[in-house]
Write a structure and sequence with these properties.
Blueprint: E1 3-7, H1 11-23, E2 27-31, H2 34-44, E3 48-52, H3 60-70, E4 75-81, H4 85-93, E5 98-102, H5 106-125, H6 129-132, H7 148-161, E6 167-170, H8 177-186, E7 195-199, H9 205-213, H10 231-234, E8 239-243, H11 250-262, E9 264-266, E10 273-275, E11 279-284, H12 288-293, H13 299-305, E12 309-311, H14 322-337, E13 343-344, H15 346-354, H16 360-374, E14 379-380, H17 387-391, H18 398-420, H19 426-445, H20 450-457, H21 461-470
Parallel strand pairs: 1-2, 1-3, 3-4, 4-5, 6-11, 6-12, 7-8, 8-11, 13-14
Antiparallel strand pairs: 9-10
Length: 478
């Protein structure tokens, strides 16, 4: 039976609620003041309480605070004047589930009660608080996942932590490159020494150089009179994490390469050589290999980084980790929100698992933080999730979407490179490159069989041979 307690000093309202609730299949009980209501909650343990704000003696808000302190699982719906904004805000701050404005509309009451009992139903499927907590759980952000991809990442982190070689972490924005870098540092012999991050994408190039290498007094306008040490000096003995390294200018790349090779540098505006012992971990969401081909990144620096490369998979490729990540993020947000969050409904979980997550783990975290903040109980329902989660369930395969996006960026880079070369026939140049690449790919796929290749491409064999001659494909035994 669904038990509902009404706490209101207006006998007419109480009678109307009783008739309505019984007609809807609920089991109602009535209390005419807060003190009596608190006693009934202690003895009758109702599922939901309809609580009027304006009560004789203890006010409704005071009663709400008492209920949430001693009976946190009871859902409380506040009854208040329609225009009483301050009271409504305070009630929601005290973790009221919802509010019903006066004059009372029973259809509104019906909707709110249905949502309240749907929340109770979801609660019954979730583990208890004791079961939910893990004594081995580490506080704060950490790598989460048991998928095959993440298990391989953990293995690589262990290997990389055992040496001091330079590492390149590749992956889309929001995949957790910073966490991987910190994990490598934390597992290494340098764990007690500094871990110093610097984001190349957050600083203009002229400031980035001074951030990395420091500067002497008077090195530039606005420089501190005593100078300033750079991130390399601050990281001495430890690890320097250079994020978004693809944004670094060619000139700065040269200086970085020299520092990596010699572990020596000079501050900006200085002549004194500074020796350091720093392990460098770099990260990028760009395809550095393609940037090297386009002349946008130094090949020697790229291969210096590429000695050991670690690629982080996007979230859409490890969807089985989504429930674990959700649990982790819920544990993180509970303390900052000041309320327990036991979990998410099955329907809500399906919505999250069907989303493509273009922003990866970071987007999922922001989504959970938002939903937890908006949730009116200790359970997240589909209504609490952002709009884009509801509208983001699309039939197109996520990997295909990512490939199309990547192709777009590659084409943009190729076009920019051709323009920089002074191309006067951009369309023909780019189209020729695509044409050649596609033919070579099709030939490889068809084991160099020209008839099958022509069929795969949807062109005649004569046209294929003509294009192969045009692009010099197959010459010199290729």
């Amino acid at each position: 039976m669904k038990n509902v307690l009404v706490i209101d000093d207006d006998e007419k309202i109480c009678w109307a609620f009783q008739q309505f609730l019984e007609g809807e299949g609920y089991n109602p009980s009535i209390a005419n003041n807060a003190e009596e209501g608190l006693q009934r909650i202690a003895t009758d343990t109702p599922d939901v309480v309809l609580l009027d704000v304006n009560l004789p003696g203890m006010s409704g808000l005071e009663a709400l605070a008492e209920i949430k302190t001693h009976h946190p699982s009871v859902i409380v719906i506040i009854i208040t004047a329609y225009d009483d904004v301050e009271t409504t805000i305070e009630a929601m701050r005290l973790h009221a589930f919802d509010f019903v404005p006066k004059p009372i509309d029973l259809e509104v009451v019906k909707t709110v009660l249905e949502r309240a009992f749907r929340t109770q139903s979801v609660r019954s499927t979730l583990p208890t608080e004791a079961e939910h907590d893990s004594p081995t759980e580490q506080p704060g952000h950490r790598l989460v996942g048991k998928s095959e991809q993440m298990r391989e990442i953990y293995k690589l982190i262990g290997v990389l932590a055992s040496n001091t070689t330079t590492v390149l972490i590749e992956g889309e924005t929001g995949t957790g490159k910073d966490l991987v870098a910190r994990a490598i540092h934390a597992g290494s012999e340098r764990k007690d020494m500094p871990f110093i991050p610097v984001d190349c994408g957050a600083l203009p190039d002229e400031l980035l150089e001074s951030e990395l290498f420091g500067y002497e007094a008077g090195a530039f306008t606005g420089a501190k009179s005593e100078g300033k040490p750079g991130r390399f000096e601050l990281a001495n003995g430890g690890t320097l994490f250079i994020d978004e390294v693809a944004n670094m200018s060619p000139a700065l790349q040269v200086k970085l390469l020299r520092t990596l090779q010699t572990q020596k540098f000079e501050r900006l505006g200085g002549t004194r050589t500074i020796n350091v012992d720093v392990r460098v971990i770099a990260a990028t969401n760009q395809e550095l290999g393609q940037m090297v081909k386009l002349g946008e990144f130094r090949a020697d620096l790229y291969y210096r980084f590429k000695r050991i490369a670690l690629h982080l998979p996007p979230l859409r490729e490890r969807q089985e980790d989504i429930p674990l990540l959700i649990t982790h993020f819920l544990q993180l947000v509970q303390e900052e929100l000041g309320k327990p969050i036991r979990g998410i409904s099955e329907e809500g979980m399906k919505l999250l698992q069907n989303h493509t997550w273009p922003g990866n783990v970071r987007e999922l975290e922001n989504c959970i933080r938002s939903a937890a903040a908006l949730s009116r109980s200790d359970v997240i329902l589909p209504d609490d999730l952002p709009t884009e989660i509801h509208s983001g369930t699309i039939e197109v395969v996520p990997e295909t979407l990512n490939m199309e996006t990547s192709l777009k960026y590659v084409l943009q880079d190729i076009a920019k490179a051709k323009i920089a070369e002074g191309s006067k026939q951009l369309y023909d140049d780019v189209l020729a490159l695509l044409d050649q690449t596609l033919i070579e790919l099709a030939l490889t796929e068809c084991a160099q069989n020209q008839s099958k290749t022509a069929e795969l491409l949807g062109i005649s064999r004569t046209t294929l041979i003509k294009k192969m001659k045009q692009h010099k494909i197959g010459e010199n035994g290729e």
